[in-house]
Specification:
Largest sheet: 3 strands, antiparallel
Strand order of the largest sheet: 1-3-2
Number of strands: 3
Order of helices and strands: HHEHHEEHH
Length: 157
Amino acid sequence: MAETRWLDDAEQRAWRGYLRMNTVLGAALSRQLQVDSTLSLPDFEVLVHLTDVEDERLRVSELARVMRWEKSRLSHQVTRMERRGLVAREECLSDGRGAFVVLTGAGRDAIEAAAPAHVDAVRRLFFDAITADDVDALAGISQRVIARVEANDVCPS
């Protein structure tokens, strides 16, 4: 068994800063959405993925995979969103076992209403605090870490 490679002080500071930033930023963006719209952050995330595809529908399994959520978590979230008319489930006619999550008109209206204030908050809280070089560095770091995690993921969603 390999010896543990402990984090040095700089790595520890960077890692804990990243975790703290993720927590406080997520909480702030969640509060902003709740104040400015009827959407939660998980609602918004589901709706974003549906608006990102041409026919505004995704198989439940595909949506769970791209969101990196367990299917049961997604199922509960979709059920809550269905009750509010934001999405609908439709059977897959070519495969009786599968279902689609489909964006509704109300879901489109909700994300279109919420997006401007949300983007403003993302810009104000995140992008206005960093430089263009930071943006480039973050994009590169994100791509490398995601590729590493995905290459080593033994239990993908």
